[in-house]
Design a protein that fits this description.
alpha/beta, three-stranded antiparallel sheet, single chain, Rossmann fold, 30% helix, six-stranded mixed sheet, 2 domains
């Protein structure tokens, strides 16, 4: 995929409290076990998502990262004696937004309608003003009537990010959302996500140690067979962090060492 030209990526315009919504909540996942075709993939795993923070889960393909995300999203039933605990004792139902590595935009709907589809499916009155404000914030106010097929890959992912935030959910689950993008577009969208996810409780699945170090308040490495979860790595500094920072380079080496210890690569 070719990089977007700089003039195709407008810097986000000011928006009052783009992440305004319900108060953030913390989540604890206690996973008893997870098996596929009789093989134990995950077992005795405890994962905490701190309220209003981005937690990154890093690891090689097939280790179970996306399965954890899908368990939290309700796509996979809780196995065995597993349990999910929410800090305010409420349910996760209706409080989650999910962003896939594919943009999953409806090809026959305009950019604006892609943002409004969730509310319409729930029978709500479309909040057109909020949708337009979000598009303005991601630099796509002038493309609200465009079809997804006319947009670049980076633009489509910006629409997908705006659509995720349009839901106003306090919890956001992201599965490799920027993995298919070129390096320049990925870097810019990481910056945009860091700004717009402020105050959300986020679980970001990634293969990329640098992406985790730029965006994560807490970083876990999932590795092994069956997979185990490392203690949290907590980088210093405000996100999005500078990838040239010497401290981040040290953390990068630490992450790679954890992966190498299990004989696996991201």
């Amino acid at each position: 995929m070719e990089p977007e030209r700089p003039d195709n990526f407008s810097m986000p315009k000011p928006m009052n409290n783009p992440s305004e919504g319900p108060s953030p909540v913390g989540i604890m996942l206690n996973l008893d076990c997870l098996e596929f075709d009789g093989q134990l993939i995950l077992g005795n795993l405890d994962l905490t998502l701190k309220p209003g923070r981005i937690t990154c889960l890093l690891g090689p393909s097939g280790v179970g990262k996306s399965s954890i995300l899908k368990i939290l999203a309700g796509f996979i039933p809780l196995p065995g004696e597993s349990r999910i605990t929410v800090s305010d004792s409420g349910s996760l139902a209706g409080r989650l937004s999910y962003m896939d590595q594919q943009d999953l935009l409806l090809p026959w709907a305009t950019v604006l309608d892609n943002l409004l589809i969730g509310g319409r499916l729930r029978g709500e009155t479309p909040d057109i003003d909020r949708a337009r404000a979000l598009l303005d914030h991601v630099g796509l106010a002038d493309r609200q009537d465009a079809l997804p097929s006319t947009l670049s890959g980076g633009m489509r992912q910006r629409v997908a990010l705006a659509r995720t935030l349009m839901e106003g959910a306090p919890i956001v689950l992201m599965d490799e959302p920027f993995s298919a993008l070129d390096a320049i577009t990925k870097f810019r969208l990481q910056d945009l996500a860091a700004e717009m996810l402020t105050g959300k409780t986020v679980l970001l699945i990634t293969h990329d140690p640098l992406e985790a170090l730029r965006l994560g308040h807490n970083i876990h490495v999932l590795s092994g067979n069956p997979a185990t979860l490392s203690p949290p790595l907590i980088p210093e500094g405000r996100i999005p962090r500078d990838p040239t920072d010497d401290v981040l380079k040290h953390h990068y080496s630490d992450i790679m060492a954890r992966l190498a210890a299990s004989g696996q690569q991201p």
